[in-house]
């Protein structure tokens, strides 16, 4: 089942590597395909050799419905996010270096860049450290997400999400770009120029032109 959707998870993971959001077989990708069915990448398998049959189908409790592989070790955290955010259809976890570096020196990536406002919806919070492969990663994500489409996990990486795998990947990529910019600004030691709430709200307004018509 879900052959095209399974391939989309593999394609996303390969793009995560191309964007240097992960190394080796780190991170994971997951997708809601029904109310109680989720596709998840398998634990510790190379994405370059992964086949759709390696992607695992699980239910809302994490029970394997289809597949012979062990699902990602972060399965309980991923399912916590899905089960508490019915508006989310895709979740990706990365170890992207600039966002992780920012987690050591700041409590959030502020909404001082148009890409953060346009692509991530709001400032991205840094959640307190929770050990990897623990449900706490999902709990912290839900608690700290607010209006944003991502949370930075202190000392660890990122959980990004959206209505599709493509959107979740775009969120992670733009988050990393924002973190690069913010860390570069912090490195100067000069005062940071913040946007006002009014400027942020104005930038967030739908302009009805960007992209191609449906």
Instruction: Tell me the total number of β-strands.
Output: 9
Largest beta-sheet details? 9 strands, mixed
Oligomer: single chain
**Overall pLDDT level:** 96
What does this protein look like?
This protein is of the alpha+beta class and 214 residues long. The protein is 38% helix and 18% strand. It is built from seven helices and nine strands; from the N terminus they run αββββαβαβαβαββαα. It has helices at residues 3-18, 75-84, 97-103, 114-120, 136-145, 165-188, 197-204; strands at residues 28-34, 37-40, 56-58, 64-66, 90-94, 108-109, 124-127, 150-153, 157-162. It has a nine-stranded mixed sheet, sandwiched between helices. The relative contact order is 0.15. The mean pLDDT is 96.
What brief labels describe this structure?
18% strand; 7 helices; alpha+beta; 214 residues
How would you briefly describe this protein structure?
By secondary structure, this protein is α+β, with helices and mostly antiparallel strands. It is built from seven helices and nine strands. A nine-stranded mixed beta sheet has the order 4-3-2-1-5-9-8-7-6, with helices on both faces.
């Amino acid at each position: 089942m879900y052959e095209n959707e399974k391939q989309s998870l593999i394609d996303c993971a390969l793009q995560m590597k191309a964007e240097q959001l992960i190394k080796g077989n780190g991170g994971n990708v997951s997708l809601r395909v029904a109310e109680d069915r989720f596709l998840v990448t398998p634990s510790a398998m190379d994405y370059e050799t992964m086949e759709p049959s390696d992607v695992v189908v699980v239910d809302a409790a994490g029970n394997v419905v289809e597949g012979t592989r062990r699902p990602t070790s972060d399965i309980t955290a991923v399912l916590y996010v899905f089960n508490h955010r019915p508006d989310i259809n895709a979740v990706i976890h990365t170890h992207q270096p600039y966002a992780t570096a920012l987690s050591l020196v700041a409590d959030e990536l502020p909404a001082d860049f148009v890409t953060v406002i346009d692509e991530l919806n709001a400032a991205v919070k840094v959640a307190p450290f929770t050990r990897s492969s623990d449900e706490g990663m999902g709990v912290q994500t839900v608690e700290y997400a607010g209006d944003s489409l991502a949370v930075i996990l202190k000392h660890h990486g990122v959980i990004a999400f959206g209505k599709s795998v493509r959107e979740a990947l775009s969120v992670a990529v733009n988050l990393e770009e924002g973190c690069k910019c913010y860390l570069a600004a912090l490195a100067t030691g000069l005062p940071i120029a913040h946007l006002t709430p009014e400027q942020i709200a104005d930038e967030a307004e739908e302009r009805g032109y960007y992209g191609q018509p449906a």
